[in-house]
Design a protein that fits this description.
The protein is mainly β. The protein has one helix at about 5-25; strands at about 50-55, 65-70, 75-80, 80-85, 90-95, 95-100, 110-115, 120, 125-130, 135-145, 150, 160-165. Strands 1-2-10-5-8 form a five-stranded antiparallel beta sheet, with no helix packed on it. The protein has a four-stranded antiparallel beta sheet with strand order 3-9-6-7, with no helix packed on it. About 20% of the residues are buried.
């Protein structure tokens, strides 16, 4: 049986390749499952604060559940102190996200949230966040409308608040 051994090493990879071929050829029922591959995610342009977003579920301007990817580009890009009307739940998917709270903007004292971290931003509580030396990707979930209200530093003589559409 010395001649049977080489066939054994050939048959196993061929069988595995055949099974994988069947798995790749399967089609999903769109009534049961929908998906977007990474190259199909609808990223918007990078805004002046250095972030970019892609809405994947919901409408940020309307009441209801939403899910958005947010990418902070490297280079010390941060939002300024602000708050949202509702709680938001955030998962850090890639990179390190830097988070701070309160009306005083101080990136040197931000807290690092590495990939895999889960963060809750509570409604009407002032916070700020961003990326330092690497791109950071977040998955943000919450209830809309997803407005953001800027909170000026309390040391500023005329404290101003204004509402905008969702902007991290």
């Amino acid at each position: 049986m010395p001649n049977a051994r080489p066939w054994r090493y050939l048959v196993a990879p061929l069988a595995l390749a055949g099974m994988l071929g069947f798995a790749c050829a399967a089609e999903l029922n769109p009534a049961a499952v929908t998906y977007k591959l990474p190259d199909q995610i609808p990223w918007g342009p990078v805004n002046p604060s250095g972030s970019q977003q892609a809405v994947v579920v919901g409408d940020l301007n309307k009441p209801g559940f939403y899910v958005v990817y947010n990418r902070w580009t490297k280079g010390n890009h941060f939002s300024r102190p602000h708050f949202h009307p509702n709680d938001r739940y955030i998962v850090v998917l890639q990179g390190t996200w830097w988070v701070g709270s309160g009306p005083k903007f101080d990136p040197d004292n931000a807290v690092a949230m590495p990939a895999g971290s889960f963060v809750t931003h509570y409604g009407k509580q002032v916070h700020w966040d961003g990326a330092k030396d690497e791109d950071t990707v977040l998955l943000i979930m919450g209830e809309g409308p997803a407005t953001s209200t800027r909170a000026e530093d309390k040391q500023t003589p005329a404290r101003q608040l204004y509402s905008t559409n969702f902007s991290p």
